Every structure is written in structure tokens, then in C-alpha cells.
């Protein structure tokens, strides 16, 4: 609770700073755009957070997002697949990637760090093999007129944009809330969640207690990669075009940072869904703040790192004060 209060205070402070940087920064169009960005990162962060709670980590998420976004466009434009089927196929592909990670780590006892680091390079390479040019929705619709209506429908359902690309409502944030509800029920109100926390807190003790630790950690990898693939499709639908060379690049760092900022301990066994959402929201408020406050773009990652450090220090301060009070 202390960590959630702390990250919420940071979030409110950033919105206030955004307002004072430029009163027009909090107009409705900006709020919707920021909400969508928060929604997409939040969905990825939920998957990462579940995995971190079990005591594991996935460094390949950014490359999975890139592969998913490019594959979605490739299946429609080059394979003439129905956009709805392409959407489902890409998400299933993400789930399969999670299964591969889970099997390598739980059955062959390989380190998650090593397996997913290899995945980071493998999926980025596959992305460039699938398609080496810019993937754009306009060119896809021009080359496949029959798919245009379905693409526009998907864009409205998942992004909240009309056929002209105008944002009508922050659909990605609504999807984040829906998925957070499901993940929250799973983590905080089910046996699965209790076992995940137990495994992350002490895997060996959990195994002695009869918990099938490999099964739960395997499920964590599947959830993480599946949500990353889903986020990759959202990326193309939202931006309208992506590059195979950098699509989704660095998203793993933002998702892990959001989860940690929201209270997930990299040692495992700690974290809440509410904290993950707030952590992801903090990072995406920084983007417009950097623009409106006219910070140099090159300072973005430094500001993200300092925000995480400040959040960690604040958390440690409140944790120690709560301990002293008993």
C-alpha cells in the first residue's frame, strides 16, 4: 500500500508539472493520446509483472512486440489473411514463444536471463527476415481493398481511432483496465496467484510444500509473451506504420521499469496489479512532459532512470518509516 501511494504521488506530481509546463498540455486530445500510450505499455507491464512476481524475467519482450507488429502487417498484405485471423494468429504466435521460453527454462533448467536475452536477438532478426521495409496500414489497405474495412474496425475497437486516424476515445486504456481486472482476480483472489507469490518469495520452500513450481512459472512466460504480442499488434494499429529494425525496441526496459516502479520486486514475491498500472502510467506521462517542457529528446532515458531512482528512494523511505512505527 505504501508503494502504491508513493507511485500515485509521483503520477499526480507529473501531471501537475505537465500542466505548469504548458496549460494546453492537458487538453482532451493530449489526455486521450497519453491514455492510449499508457494503456499499451500497461498491458505489456502486466505480463512482465506476473513473471517478475514468480521470480523470473523476460528480456525479449521488445523484440516480440516488433515481430508481432510486423507479422500482423505481413500476414494481411503478403498472405492476404483476414485481419481478424491475422490478429489471432499473431497473438497465438506470442503464446507459442512464451511456451518455448517456459519449456527451455522449466524443463532444461536454463537461466531465464540467458534464454530471453537470446530471444531478444533471435526475434529481432526474424522480424527483419519477415519484412525489411516499413510496414504501413495505408499501403496494406491500398494493396488489399477487401481488408480495409476490417482493419478500420480493428483500429476503432482496439485503438479508438476512426478510418481517418482521428482518435475518438482511448480504447487501449480501456483494454488495459479490462485485462488488469482479469490479471488482478488471478493474482489476488485465486490459488494461482497465491502460488505465484509463494514461488517468487521462496521457490525451494514452495517446491517442498508440494507446489508445482515449473507449471506456474511456465504459465507466467506464456502470459508475458502473449500480452507482448497483443501489444505489438496495437502498436501497428495505433501508429499506422512501424519499422522492422526498431519496432518495439527498448519496450522491455520500460515494461520492467514500470513494474518495478509500481512495487514489483526483482527478487520476486512482491507486486500488485494496481501498482503495475500506476508504474506504467508514470513512464508515459514523461513523454509529453519532455516535449512541453522542451527538454532535449536525448535526455528522455536519463529522466526515466532518475524517476525510477526517485521512486525507489521514496519507497525505501516510506518502508523504513512504516517499520519503525511497527
TrEMBL record:
The chain crosses the membrane at residues 7-26, 46-72, 84-105, 173-197, 218-237. Keywords: Cell membrane, Membrane, Transmembrane, Transmembrane helix. PANTHER family: ABC TRANSPORTER PERMEASE PROTEIN YPHD-RELATED-RELATED (PTHR32196), SUGAR ABC TRANSPORTER PERMEASE PROTEIN (PTHR32196:SF15). This is ABC transporter permease. It is a multi-pass membrane protein. One of its GO terms (molecular function) is transmembrane transporter activity. It comes from Telmatocola sphagniphila. It is found in: Cell membrane. The lineage of its organism: Bacteria, Pseudomonadati, Planctomycetota, Planctomycetia, Gemmatales. It comes from the Bacteria. GO terms for cellular component: plasma membrane.
